[in-house]
Amino acid sequence: MNDMTPISKVQTTLKDWETDQEVRWCPGCGDYAILKAVQRTLPELGADPSNTVFVSGIGCSSRFPYYIESYGFHTIHGRAPAVATGIKLANPDLDVWLVTGDGDGMSIGGNHTMHLLRRNLNCQIMLFNNEIYGLTKGQYSPTSREGTSSPSTPMGSVDHPALPCAFALGSGARFIARGFDVSKELPSVLKAAHAHKGAAFIEIFQNCIVYNKDRFDDFAAPKGAEQSQLWLKDGEPMLFGSEKSGGIKGIALDLETLMLKVVDVVDGDWQGAGVIVHNVRNKAIAHMLVEMPFGPFPMALGVLYDDPRPTYEDAVLGQDRQAREGKAADLGKLLAKGQTWTVSGTAGDPA
């Protein structure tokens, strides 16, 4: 298939993406909801199971490839980005999804994640963030909050937590989004990530029912948490709350300093309140959104940044085509190039 030939869409249902494998996570784990969201989204994308690959590392989230009826690789700890890169370069027409966790992707795999984002490989990266090491029985992870009590931090973690979206943006990612496991908006976030040509990074907050239960209930509880969620949509004002009575305003202190502030919106007059209109291509605003402290501010969710640029595989394969242009493949000539020797004689002949 050449670069100008679009990948044809196929008709599937949720059942077509379910495997015969028993889904084995702890009862109540947020991974079940994410799995169903992905399986429901893939038919809407027109995705083809025979053209789709799920790649994972190690961790609870990394069981994912077993439960999607497509091609899949359950790789080694932190190295899923390296394997995904090889797959995409070998066959750039494949639709590659990468599944990782806050431990797998931000600790041992942090450098691999960084380089995949920096290179801008065309794939979707779903990072499940439960702020704990679940598979290895509850140790604190790179994203655990300060004070987290765990077997490895019995007196509370003193580490300042990593922010996956800030990490991704700093690594050069051109698509950053957030969602959470049981959100009805998660499929729309996945669709936006899939539509982006390049490395699309999605942080998905995921409830670990055993070792970090209800950690995200302050903004992700099934009921009553709307006031703490800021769902961002390109070209729309940054409003939050069930009645859209809160908004985010930008305040310029001087020519070099811009700050965000929560403001009340009265009678729907968001313009009068100075509420910012979201622009997914504004990287400066994206930086502030990914580091916006939850508590004083709502949790920024949805697509925070989306500004495509040429992909890694297009550049690599373009070089390959350029190198081969006007040349015929000749293995014998290649082997004889440079300094060569001809060895004559028969077996056992000292000559």
TrEMBL record:
<dbReference type="InterPro" id="IPR011766">
    <property type="entry name" value="TPP_enzyme_TPP-bd"/>
</dbReference>
<dbReference type="GO" id="GO:0045333">
    <property type="term" value="P:cellular respiration"/>
</dbReference>
<dbReference type="GO" id="GO:0016625">
    <property type="term" value="F:oxidoreductase activity, acting on the aldehyde or oxo group of donors, iron-sulfur protein as acceptor"/>
</dbReference>
<dbReference type="GO" id="GO:0044281">
    <property type="term" value="P:small molecule metabolic process"/>
</dbReference>
<dbReference type="GO" id="GO:0030976">
    <property type="term" value="F:thiamine pyrophosphate binding"/>
</dbReference>
<protein>
    <submittedName>
        <fullName>2-oxoacid:ferredoxin oxidoreductase subunit beta</fullName>
    </submittedName>
</protein>
<dbReference type="Pfam" id="PF02775">
    <property type="entry name" value="TPP_enzyme_C"/>
</dbReference>
<keyword id="KW-0560">Oxidoreductase</keyword>
<feature type="domain" description="Thiamine pyrophosphate enzyme TPP-binding">
    <location>
        <begin position="58"/>
        <end position="204"/>
    </location>
</feature>
<dbReference type="InterPro" id="IPR051457">
    <property type="entry name" value="2-oxoacid:Fd_oxidoreductase"/>
</dbReference>
<dbReference type="InterPro" id="IPR029061">
    <property type="entry name" value="THDP-binding"/>
</dbReference>
